[in-house]
Amino acid sequence: MPNQRCYQVVTFTMNPALDLFGRTEHIFDDSKSRCIQTALLPGGGGLNVARNVRRMGSDSFAIFPSGGPNGRYLEQLLKDEQQPYQAIAIDQHTRQNLGITDVGRGVMHHFVFPGPRLSRSELAACVAAICQQHAPWLVLSGSLGEGVEADFYAKIIARVRQQGTRVLLDTSGVALQGSLYQGAYLAKLNRKEFASLGYPEDASVAELAEQMQDLVAKGAVEVLIVTLNRGGAVLVQRDSQPVYVSAPAVHIVSHVGAGDSFMSALAHQLNQGAPLVQAFRYGVAAALVTVQCEGNQLEDLDWLERAYTEVVETPF
């Protein structure tokens, strides 16, 4: 789908997927577990963000590599919902992931498969497509595929910064470590991802905030967010006091897409000119809603507004 105009929020998904969701009364060992299909959706961090952001009211444009029958089906799903995108053709096949809810136990099993390996020319085409956009906001979401150099995102950040684009980073592993200290505006991590940078995962919220302040002071990013296992998140920015927003305990249906919903609400609010702390609170509220839903999207925006009133700024 060709790009005919400038968009406000551009997302890039290195490793998209078809997300197949279903239910079964019980998952059996060494036997058939008969399932009912509940949804088949475009998946992958940047695609989830782009679709949520557009639904919230900001123009979004999704860029991603696409190959094989799964890739063609993924593109058709995006066309059906009129999501603007650019698919970079690749030789290998787009992956498919599974989310199966065991109704008897009340738990979801999320099966995530490896994606395709991109050639140098395919990777270069992805970078070129991103740099053509000149968007105010670029969301780099998801891990890097097999064979992609750890500084892949860092090179993109360096190029788009020259165009005045601010980068929101949501990744992990070597991609995260290779992308910090490169000029990204904001990075969102969970506790495990933050611990991968050399910090204890069991630190108190106050200790976590101090560790985050140390990273920001050293120039890792301008704004750092770490989400908490029990709900809520901590925000640190330069020359400001840390902010801790807590969320009420709820019944968790699925974690699929919760982090992407957080980034979606954050990006939309920032794009609309909201203060950072307000955008942050909306991010916490969006994740709170999404964990209570099946699928990978945040569709009930009235529920989001109610959840925004339920998350609270909590003193350390």
From TrEMBL:
The family database entries (PROSITE patterns) matched by this protein are listed as: PFKB_KINASES_1 (PS00583)
The leader peptide range reads none
Domain spans labelled Carbohydrate kinase PfkB: 19-298
Question: What InterPro entries has UniProt attached to this entry?
Answer: Carboh/pur_kinase_PfkB_CS, PfkB_dom, Ribokinase-like, Tagatose/fructose_Pkinase
GO molecular function (one): 6-phosphofructokinase activity
A Pfam family reported for this protein in Swiss-Prot or TrEMBL: PfkB
Keyword terms: ATP-binding, Kinase, Nucleotide-binding, Transferase
Give me the Gene Ontology terms describing cellular component: cytosol
Q: Which family does it belong to?
A: Belongs to the carbohydrate kinase PfkB family.
Protein name in UniProt = Phosphofructokinase
Q: Can you name the source organism? A: Aliidiomarina maris
